[in-house]
């Protein structure tokens, strides 16, 4: 089991009427939280030093919407609380002048990842100091924790190994998608607490949601560009590059009160990302990493489509979905019936 992949699997299972299977998957995640305090990257011993995008609450909410199972919401609420506590304790930082905690991917490592030992040793070959090697290995593991392993998003653009794995600096970045997910968790749990008549907890979550929504606007929104961006903690500025993760607040319901969705449409148009026949690229940087140009991925494509739909941009959402379906159907035909985890965005 891989954590964030499970949410998208669950959406498909619910659409197929496999409610018992979904409940079992969520119970497995809950069991991991009860044992470790969080859902690991995957259910393997070598994944125990990291988690992944915390989508358990989204899984629970989707299951409740499909089944109306209030009793299971009672059970799931304690899992949300423990996971949220874990992220607050181990993944949060407090920026000056910002009322809400914000979150990053952060892993403490003493050595390379066991499952990619040789690659991590090679990535640190230019570093002599042991503590600096461990910092790099932690940031590489944190990039895996993000679910986007790997991408230029996490690389430094300065220094002798700029743009390569050896420059990974994940813990120096506040990712907009992670913060939008956690903000959305608070919104969803406020609703779920109301379902089980826990109005005190519902109001507490709603207050935290409002505070975090304001922080997302304050820290991540760039009015000049009309989009959200990751935030560079070290340099105190936006990472002003296109990533398909920039649009997660649309999906999570964490847009600011006077938000105009047309600004996002204009940003996407100006960046040229709507012109590709195969879908939305993960980025516009051809780094050779799988979460970069020219690849498009199902999870983030789905998030963008749902986010556009939820903000009234139905026609653009339909166009992106149509491109995605046509590209995957074409790949299925020419490969003899195979589906792929990622596809290229150019003509084939």
TrEMBL record:
<keyword id="KW-0378">Hydrolase</keyword>
<dbReference type="GO" id="GO:0004555">
    <property type="term" value="F:alpha,alpha-trehalase activity"/>
</dbReference>
<keyword id="KW-0326">Glycosidase</keyword>
<dbReference type="InterPro" id="IPR012341">
    <property type="entry name" value="6hp_glycosidase-like_sf"/>
</dbReference>
<protein>
    <recommendedName>
        <fullName>Trehalase</fullName>
        <ecNumber>3.2.1.28</ecNumber>
    </recommendedName>
</protein>
<dbReference type="Pfam" id="PF01204">
    <property type="entry name" value="Trehalase"/>
</dbReference>
<dbReference type="InterPro" id="IPR001661">
    <property type="entry name" value="Glyco_hydro_37"/>
</dbReference>
<comment type="similarity">
    <text>Belongs to the glycosyl hydrolase 37 family.</text>
</comment>
<dbReference type="InterPro" id="IPR018232">
    <property type="entry name" value="Glyco_hydro_37_CS"/>
</dbReference>
<dbReference type="InterPro" id="IPR008928">
    <property type="entry name" value="6-hairpin_glycosidase_sf"/>
</dbReference>
<dbReference type="GO" id="GO:0005993">
    <property type="term" value="P:trehalose catabolic process"/>
</dbReference>
């Amino acid at each position: 089991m891989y954590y964030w992949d499970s949410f998208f699997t669950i959406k498909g299972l619910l659409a197929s009427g496999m409610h018992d299977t979904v409940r079992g998957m969520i119970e497995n995640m809950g069991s991991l939280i009860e044992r470790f305090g969080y859902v690991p990257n995957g259910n393997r011993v070598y994944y125990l030093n990291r988690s992944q995008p915390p989508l358990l609450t989204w899984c629970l909410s989707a299951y409740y919407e499909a089944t109306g199972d209030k009793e299971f919401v009672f059970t799931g609420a304690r899992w949300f609380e423990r996971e949220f506590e874990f992220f607050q304790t181990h993944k949060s930082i407090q920026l000056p002048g910002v009322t809400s905690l914000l979150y990053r991917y952060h892993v403490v490592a003493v050595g390379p990842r066991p499952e990619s030992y040789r690659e991590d040793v090679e990535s640190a070959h230019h570093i002599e100091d042991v503590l600096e090697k461990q910092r790099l290995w932690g940031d590489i593991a944190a990039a895996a924790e993000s679910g986007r392993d790997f991408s230029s998003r996490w690389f430094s653009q300065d220094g002798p190994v700029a743009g390569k794995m050896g420059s990974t600096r994940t813990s120096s970045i506040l990712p907009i998608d992670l913060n939008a997910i956690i903000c959305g968790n608070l919104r969803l749990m406020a609703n779920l607490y109301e379902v089980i008549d826990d109005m005190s907890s519902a109001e507490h979550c709603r207050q935290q949601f409002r505070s975090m929504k304001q922080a997302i606007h304050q820290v991540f929104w760039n009015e000049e560009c009309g989009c959200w961006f990751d935030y560079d903690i070290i340099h105190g500025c936006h990472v002003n590059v296109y990533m398909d993760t920039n649009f997660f607040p649309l999906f999570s319901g964490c847009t600011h009160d006077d938000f105009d969705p047309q600004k996002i449409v204009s940003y996407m148009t100006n960046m040229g990302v709507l012109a590709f026949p195969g879908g939305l690229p993960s980025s516009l940087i051809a780094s050779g990493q799988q979460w970069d140009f020219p690849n498009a991925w199902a999870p983030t494509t789905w998030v963008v489509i749902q986010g556009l739909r939820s903000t009234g941009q139905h026609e653009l959402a339909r166009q992106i979905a149509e491109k995605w379906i046509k590209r995957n159907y074409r790949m299925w035909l020419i490969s003899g019936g195979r589906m792929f985890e990622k596809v290229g965005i150019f003509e084939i």
